[in-house]
Write a structure and sequence with these properties.
With 209 residues, the chain is of the alpha+beta class. 15% of the residues lie in helices and 31% in strands.
Length: 209
């Protein structure tokens, strides 16, 4: 990926909230496999703040995506980061319009390949209070999709597949947090781990001419 330019866009504060202000968004614009690709990198307010704060963040990201796509209809745009919301939450599914199925994705929507991983498979990237959440997401614009499942065209850059990167060394193997991502520390004790979130991976491919 060759970066053409990057820009930090400061968010507008959520009215009345002086603790959980919506964080800024990093826009990285460049070339991938000879095509223009733009990333909007996010870290939305934590669950210490209530849902409307993340809905507010989603509205701002939606405004950014709409603005960027108006300037270049062919732009391939990727929104990614720790959203502190699941794919099924209103901020992602309704406001950002990140749909669960390729068949549902309209011209102004995005595709969220993580939706069914959580909703149907019950898999996530962080474990809290006995259940998995999937806050770490990568969602894409329609021009990165193959609509025809039988005759897939990779002459231009397209989505291929995605998965949660899960390995034994990333998982707590014993104790109170067994089965959860292996944190660096918990309960005041150093665990020599990596993170309380698991990484996510998405593959984009293009035929080599």
């Amino acid at each position: 990926f060759s970066v053409t330019h990057s820009k930090l866009v400061l968010s507008t504060p959520f009215e009345g909230d002086t603790v959980h202000l919506t964080r800024g968004f990093l826009i990285v614009d460049g070339q991938m496999a000879g095509e223009r690709v733009c990333f909007i990198v996010n870290h939305w307010p934590s669950r210490g703040a209530k849902s409307p704060v993340r809905v507010h963040a989603a509205k701002q990201v939606r405004a950014l995506t709409d603005s960027l796509m108006r300037t270049d209809k062919k732009l391939k745009l990727i929104v990614m980061g720790d959203m502190n919301d699941d794919p099924t939450n209103a901020s992602m599914h309704k406001v950002l319009k990140a749909k669960a199925e390729i068949s549902e994705v309209g011209a102004d929507d995005m595709y969220n390949p993580w939706y069914n991983i959580l909703a149907k498979e019950g898999k996530g990237t962080l474990f809290y209070s006995g259940s998995w959440n999937l806050f770490d997401q990568i969602v894409i614009t329609p021009n990165l999709l193959n609509r025809d499942s039988k005759n897939k065209d990779y002459s231009s850059l397209k989505f291929w597949k995605n998965h949660i990167f899960r390995r034994d060394y990333l998982i707590q193997q014993e104790g109170q947090y067994k089965g959860a991502p292996l944190r660096t520390k918990a309960g005041g004790r150093w665990l020599n781990g990596y993170s309380d979130h698991l990484p996510v991976v998405m593959y984009l491919v293009k035929e080599k001419l």
